[in-house]
């Protein structure tokens, strides 16, 4: 049995010969991959919403849909970026940072809604439609992408002098 790890690889595998399953370690900092996937999924939906918004409401609908998507993507994207940098060395440490970021985002989003009036050039229905669709798809794509990651919960056992694990 030989251990094999490629340079720059996020995982390590153990090769036992043809027909054997290889084992891999936890995914290193999956947050950027999750961010990329969520942006791609919601951007695809944005294209559809933008086409419908232009047809039904013209440029006002288009701009409102773009702004609705951008606000949601910014607020959710910040969390994943913070998680990426906070969880580089210790994935479990990112959870506390996610919680703090969530509280700050909720307060910030509430302040934006409370203190800024809707501009006359904006189409509130298209802003709302775009924001709600983006939130739903973003959450679904985050869950899907996260479910495909490997998170190491327990540390690997240390080998004893004889090379066996305790």
Could you state the oligomeric state of the chains shown? single chain
Radius of gyration: 22 Å
Number of helices: 3
DSSP E strands, number: 2
- Roughly what fraction of the amino acids lie in strands? under 5%
The low-pLDDT segments are 1-14
Report the mean per-residue pLDDT as an integer: 80
Residue share in helices? 55-70%
Structural class: mainly alpha
Distance between the termini: 19 Å
**Major sheet, described briefly?**
2 strands, antiparallel
Number of domains: 1
Strands ordered across the widest β-sheet = 1-2
Specify the overall morphology: elongated
Characterization of the model:
- With 166 residues, the protein is mainly alpha-helical.
- The protein contains 3 helices and 2 strands, in the order E-E-H-H-H.
- It has helices spanning 31-86, 94-115, 124-147; strands at 2-4, 13-15.
- Helix 1 (31-86) crosses helix 3.
- The longest helix is centred in the middle third of the chain and has 56 residues, at 31-86.
- The protein is elongated.
- The two termini are 19 Å apart.
């Amino acid at each position: 049995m030989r251990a094999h790890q490629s340079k720059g690889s996020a995982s390590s595998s153990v090769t036992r010969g043809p027909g054997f399953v290889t084992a891999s370690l936890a995914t290193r900092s999956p947050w950027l991959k999750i961010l990329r996937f969520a942006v791609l999924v919601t951007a695809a939906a944005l294209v559809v919403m933008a086409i419908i918004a232009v047809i039904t409401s013209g440029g006002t609908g288009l701009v409102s849909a773009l702004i609705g998507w951008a606000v949601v993507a910014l607020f959710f994207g910040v969390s994943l970026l913070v998680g990426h940098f906070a969880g580089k060395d210790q994935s479990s440490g990112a959870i506390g940072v996610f919680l703090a970021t969530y509280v700050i985002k909720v307060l910030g989003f509430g302040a934006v809604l409370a203190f800024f009036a809707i501009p006359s050039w904006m189409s509130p229905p298209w802003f709302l439609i775009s924001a709600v669709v983006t939130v739903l798809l973003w959450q679904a794509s985050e869950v899907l992408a996260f479910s495909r990651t490997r998170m190491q919960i327990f540390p690997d056992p240390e080998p004893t002098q004889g090379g066996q694990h305790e």
